[in-house]
């Protein structure tokens, strides 16, 4: 079992980190990919505590589109900060989460796009897969991926919530799709269809914890152990066994991120 995307170094887990890790291990997790923000110094420091307590975790570091505005004067500096953060964390296996978010528009769109492009260039330079966050920005996301040759390194569309057409587009571009707790929501009918059509060798599962807890944990803090429920739901939708989904996701994670 693997949680391919969680924010375990965030302040939400600082008070009971050992208990959260113990529950994850008891649930059978072999790995977890912990996402770090290159512009968040407390989170980068907390990553040392996380890895000391759970040596099997790996990290992906990037500048989230919400934070891109910090680099409006020099978008290339975002990639430089990511590179510097990676030098501090030898367990880094991915670059992200990076991308575009036009739902909140916390950063100007043109700045988001520039920061995204520079980080893809860094991923290509370092040979690291990218972890993509995209929300209401499908056309620009795929355009920039093509222009910056993001397919050269591949990666994953994390917490995928698009429709079948977008899923096919991402798969055709060479990317994996990661499903989170939203797939357990009864009204997420389009996502249920995506869960059924993703090839087993391109599927990942995640929690995005502390966010998006799956049913029956909605309204509570999410945590890596709950990825078991994501695997169960995906299995139910596909008419498969939960262990088959968990094993495939773990194998895909190992092949993509080489933990």
Topology:
Layout: E1 2-6, H1 17-26, E2 31-37, H2 41-53, E3 58-62, H3 76-88, E4 92-101, H4 109-126, E5 130-135, H5 138-147, E6 155-157, H6 164-172, E7 176-179, H7 189-197, E8 203-205, H8 227-238, H9 242-257
Parallel strand pairs: 1-2, 2-3, 3-4, 4-5, 5-6, 6-7, 7-8
Helix pairs in contact: 3-4, 4-5, 8-9
Brief overview, please?
The protein is an alpha/beta fold. Helices cover 42% and strands 17% of the residues. It has an eight-stranded parallel sheet.
Would you kindly provide a written description of the structure presented here, covering whatever features stand out?
The protein is of the alpha/beta class and 259 residues long. It has one domain (2-257): Alpha-Beta Barrel (TIM Barrel), CATH 3.20.20.140. 42% of the residues lie in helices and 17% in strands. The protein contains 9 helices and 8 strands. It has an 8-stranded parallel sheet. Helix 7 links the parallel strand 7 (176-179) and strand 8.
- Helix count equals 9
CATH hierarchy, class: Alpha Beta
Oligomer: single chain
Q: Biggest sheet: strands side by side, in what order?
A: 1-2-3-4-5-6-7-8
Strand content: 15-25%
Give the integer mean of the pLDDT values. 98
Measure the end-to-end span: 14 Å
**CATH topological fold name:** TIM Barrel
Question: Total domains, how many?
Answer: 1
Summarize the biggest pleated sheet.
Answer: 8 strands, parallel
Helix content: 40-55%
């Amino acid at each position: 079992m693997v949680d391919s995307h969680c924010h375990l170094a965030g302040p939400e887990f600082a008070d009971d980190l050992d208990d959260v890790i113990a529950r994850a291990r008891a649930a059978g997790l072999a790995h977890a990919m912990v996402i770090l923000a290159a512009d968040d110094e407390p989170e980068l420091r907390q990553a040392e505590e996380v890895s000391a307590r759970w040596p099997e975790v790996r990290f992906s570091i990037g500048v989230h589109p919400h934070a891109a505005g910090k680099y409006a004067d020099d978008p290339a500096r975002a990639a430089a900060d990511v590179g510097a953060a990676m030098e501090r964390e030898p367990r880094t296996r991915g670059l992200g989460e990076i991308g575009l978010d036009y739902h909140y528009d916390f950063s100007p769109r043109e700045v988001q796009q520039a920061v995204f492009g520079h980080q893809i260039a860094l991923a290509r330079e370092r040979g690291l897969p990218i972890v993509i966050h995209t929300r209401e920005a499908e056309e620009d996301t795929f355009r920039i991926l093509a222009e910056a040759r993001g397919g050269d390194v591949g990666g994953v569309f994390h917490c995928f919530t698009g429709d079948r057409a977008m899923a096919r587009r991402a798969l055709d571009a060479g990317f994996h799709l990661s499903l989170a707790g939203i797939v357990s929501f009864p009204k997420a009918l389009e996502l249920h269809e995506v869960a059924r059509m993703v090839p087993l060798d391109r599927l990942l599962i995640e929690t995005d914890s502390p966010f998006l807890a799956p049913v029956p944990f909605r309204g509570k803090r999410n945590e890596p152990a709950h990825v078991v429920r994501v695997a169960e739901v995906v299995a139910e939708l596909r008419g498969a066994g939960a262990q088959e989904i968990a094993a495939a996701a773990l194998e895909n994670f190992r092949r993509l991120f080489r933990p």
